[in-house]
Amino acid sequence: MFMRIDHVGIACHDLEEKIAFFERTFELTVVAREVNQEQGVKEAMLHIADGQGGGSYIQLLEPLDPDTPVGKFLAKRGEGVHHVAFGVPDVAQALETIGGRGVRLLDEKPRHGSMGSSIAFLHPKDVAGMLTELVQAPER
Ligand code: CMX
Ligand code: CO
């Protein structure tokens, strides 16, 4: 069902500072920067590699507001890994299948994600404490 790891999302206080750190330390390149009002974040995608089914990335996330998922996470836990995103061929279908197996869905329907993707989240308490995102690449 999962094709690959699409990205690892990292919560940070200062997006520009963390972009500079990942660029100089790991020689990664920013391929997209976006503000996603619906998710309450300012974000950057840093490319790692290309594989079957699409690329893999580090997603750096700065909250737009303290009262957002990433803002609350930072206040509670500080900077660090916020979620892991799996690439799937069809998010709506994956939600139906995974929801049917008793995992709470944070999104009943796919939403807009980075670089034109469709995304949806699964409750971390039902996935071994890991906030899980499903990502479907945009139609080419
Ligand atoms: N990873 C693991 N556990 C998490 C978590 C995370 N990122 N965020 C919250 N939790 C845990 C908390 O530690 C808490 O556990 P305890 O009760 O044991 O302390 C529990 O989940 C509830 O957390 P909360 O702080 O009360 O927060 P909420 O329940 O209000 O929200 C969540 C948590 C996961 C439902 C919410 O963050 C959410 O809907 N996330 C999905 C959307 C999102 O994260 N968007 C930003 C990324 C966008 C993108 O990738 O494009
Ligand atoms: Co993400």
UniProtKB/TrEMBL annotation:
- Could you tell me the EC number(s) of this protein? 5.1.99.1
| One GO process term, biological-process aspect | L-methylmalonyl-CoA metabolic process
Keyword Nucleotide-binding attached? no
One annotated GO molecular function: methylmalonyl-CoA epimerase activity
VOC domain span: 4-137
Q: Does the record bear Nucleotide-binding in its keywords?
A: no
Record's keyword terms, sorted:
Isomerase, Metal-binding
Identify the stretch annotated as signal peptide in this record.
Answer: none
Q: Which Pfam families match?
A: Glyoxalase_4
What is its EC class? isomerase
**Entry similarity comment:** Belongs to the methylmalonyl-CoA epimerase family.
Annotated protein name in UniProt: Methylmalonyl-CoA/ethylmalonyl-CoA epimerase
